Amino acid sequence: MSATPGTERPLRVAIVGRPNVGKSTLFNRLVSQRIALVDDEPGVTRDRREGDARLGDLPFTAIDTAGLEEAPDGSLASRMHAQSEAAIREADLNLFVVDARAGITPADEHFARVLRAYDKPVVVLANKAEGRAADAGVLEAYALGFGDPIRISAEHGEGMGNLYDALRAATEAMVLDDEPAPDTPPGLRVAIVGRPNAGKSTLINQLLGEERLLTGEEAGITRDSIAVDWNWRGQHFRLFDTAGIRKKARVAAKLEKLAVGDALRAIRFAEVVVLLLDADMPFDKQDLQIADLIEREGRALVIAVNKWDAVSDRQDRLADLREKAERLLPQVAGVPLITVSAQTGKGLDRMMAAIVQTHDIWNRRIPTAKLNNWLASMLERHPPPAVSGRRLKLRYLTQAKSRPPTFVAFCSRPEVLPAAYSRYLVHGLRDDFDLPGVPIRLLMRKGDNPYDKRKKKS
């Protein structure tokens, strides 16, 4: 039975294999985006990552995984191994990728034994199979015992037709869940960002109630920005775990540059960004730079201070944190500051409530009539200054868009209006229309009051 969108859940396909055989390259091709990090260094992928994929008329969910290899218990490689096995368990079909040029290695044979233990359908893909140099490796792949291997080149897109045929045959041979998939609205996109080892992955795992993401004492475990769908109090969210963002001068390795670039993309595509601070080192210079980047991208911001369970003098520390937030981040005055513990889960409900409230503020629209009544009172209280002996005139104010709230004011000479007067208006908008913590854009345009023009025409 085929998996038809809207009537049955989509086929879940895990891409598995030892490190550096091209799994992430294949994942990127199937989802038609370069969203998984790819590099010649083995072990780039650590968490499992999902994406909406399609081959021809066949939609499915592709799951990229870490390279599976034997490792001692408790090590990072062992925890990566556990993530890959979780993907195998959850998948309807596993694409077992081997390197046709390297041939079948002991690690491939070990992986084949792992796959057989789960009794899930397996399709062997002999990757990097362009040219005759791969012929011997393709023949060796028969010995894995999963039927005919399919020659592909994930990098060049060769063999995708044969892969489609194999997926279609496997889909039709399977009986998937017959329960209709509910129409789920797009989730509110929330990116969790911060410096390395702030506890971002632990926080998301605590929200989900499972070890969905790799965590540990080692800094910099997360590399890809991993998206996870989740429901909280009946509302759908898409949470993005991101790599820790260090000071630019310290980011030297190619992989870390790629990971930080992925985190920055997550900020740009998010609606609300949670900046996770470490309670032991809050408002480090790098934290402030990340907050400034979020504001410049126009995203709604919530600050969460993690590891609060280890703080003793909480009242004094909280007062100090709030004072620092107002003093150091005036561009997002009133930003929600929530204390949390990713380990125990304390404060996470308050954080989620702040995310929802901040998202509502970020989407808020104010009627033009209210804005112009407000503008008149602001001008009366503090008129614009005279520049070169001529007084500036502000005639009209309207909201051009939300997300973030963006306003346009018509001014007689916008090019000479002092920045201090623009800040006066922005602070007034924030205070009088209850817009705490979100970026506010105020654009000055030269021209007459367009409302007067409409009145004259009528």
Entry summary:
By secondary structure, the chain is an alpha/beta fold. 35% of the residues lie in helices and 21% in strands. A hairpin with a 2-residue loop joins strand 13 (386-387) and strand 14.
Q: What fraction, in percent, of the residue positions are helical?
A: 25-40%
- The CATH top-level class label of the largest domain: Alpha Beta
CATH superfamily of the largest domain: P-loop containing nucleotide triphosphate hydrolases
CATH architecture of the largest domain: 3-Layer(aba) Sandwich
Spatial strand sequence of the major β-sheet: 2-3-1-4-5-6
- Low-confidence parts lasting 5 or more residues at pLDDT below 50? 1-7, 36-46, 72-78, 176-182, 213-224, 249-259
Distance between the termini: 64 Å
CATH domain fold name of the largest domain: Rossmann fold
Q: Give Rg in angstroms.
A: 27 Å
Put simply, the count of helices is 13
Shape: elongated
Quaternary class: single chain
Helices and strands, in order, run as EHEEHEHEHEHEHEEHEHEHEHHEEEEHEH
Percentage of residues in strands = 15-25%
Average pLDDT confidence is 80
Q: Indicate how many domains the architecture comprises.
A: 3
Q: Strand pairing plus helix content: what structural class?
A: alpha/beta
Please count the beta strands (DSSP E, at least 2 residues each). Answer: 17
